[in-house]
Amino acid sequence: MFTYYKIIRLSTFKTISLLPLDLVVFNNEGIAYIDLNQPESNSTTIQESWVNRYKIINKIFSKYRKEIQSFKKLRSASKSDLKEAILYGQLFKGYDIDNEPVLKIRTKKLSFDITRRSNLQTPYSTDLLQNFMSYLSRNAFDHDFTKS
Predict the structure, then answer these.
(1) Exposed, middle or buried by CB within 10 Å (0-12, 13-18, 19+), for 124?
(2) Could you give the 3-state DSSP secondary structure of residue 137?
(3) What pTM does this model have?
(4) Mean predicted confidence (pLDDT) in 28-53
(5) Strand ranges (E), 15-64
């Protein structure tokens, strides 16, 4: 019998948007994708709060889809027009151009390279969260490296 260990390095955490992570809730495979043709979740097993969250996420990603499409159109524009739109326009504020491949134009689906591997249940999830919060709120005292 094999024993699997999961390691979590709290010191290497990154702050990210929860929007793509929330998408794994809405499908059984645990893959982060959204079909923008469906303004409401068709799942009957999720709570009402998640149904409302899906509507909000759909609205935000529909706007994001429009930004990607605008970028694709601007790619054929002159270099000076493109530079002006990016430097002085509000359309691409906070937009990461490297994320363009997430949109499938024909199907209006956004797919992110995020997959849920497993779920931690209480008490393990509570313990992990508590340890993470302890790590974030630790005291930052100077350390004298000359003494052992």
Answers:
(1) exposed
(2) coil
(3) 0.54
(4) 83
(5) 31-35
